[in-house]
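## Example record

The block below lists the input lines for one assembly entry, exactly as stored, with component labels intact.
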Amino acid sequence: MQVTQGVYFIQGQDEFIPDSHVYVLGEPGSGDLTLIDAGLMGKGGYKLERLEAIGMDPKGFKRIIMTHCHLDHIGCLPELLSEMDQAELWVHESEAEALEKGDERVVYGMDMFKGMCQAQYGLKDGVFRFEVQRKLRDGDRVSLGQEEWEVLHIPGHSPGSIALYHAMHKILIPGDTLYADYAIGRFDLFGASGPQLKESLMRLAELEVEILLPGHNRIMKGVPKGYAAQVASQWAPYLS
Ligand SMILES: [Zn+2]
Ligand SMILES: [Zn+2]
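Predicted structure tokens for the full assembly:
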């Protein structure tokens, strides 16, 4: 589904664990496509079908950018990379190193969840070990399909959470930090921090946003002015 010119949305198919939404930046046939997040294990098939339906060849993807590396976003990465083996992986530097070492604490978030998921999906230790071609930093300006996006490091939900922001078109892709309906991401998993999340929300509140494309739940077009600021102030008492 097209959100706006050069921005496409594939809705996650949640099971007992959520499957994150996936966004594509770029135009079909351009050969310069960017995938934002991958989704949950076993959820590669329908994504590849949707991409094909809108005329996007997996070989046209130059990069996959992770908003962060939780299992519901990265679980599907091996499936997608097997069709997009030319694509680079871009991750914020504070989660990239762990990913390269096969340190899966951020991926699973907590030991209990790790055991449960490994049993449920037959996953072995070290499945989520990847080489990261670009380690993103706060303030990076990245050219994606001829559009310039800004990288904001917004820790709190996870240590290396990022948002992608298109200032001219007022589009924000905040991962699991900010959702529609005044919701925010959880802040109890490995490497999470309430106070950091509060600061990150306050930072997002400074941006002009018309289109909000979160990692789960509904997307928002025509975001009311001051939306992120309201969310930040509503949650502030719980985040310090
Ligand atoms: Zn998450
Ligand atoms: Zn998520």
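The first helix runs from residue 44 to 53. The chain has a mean pLDDT of 97.
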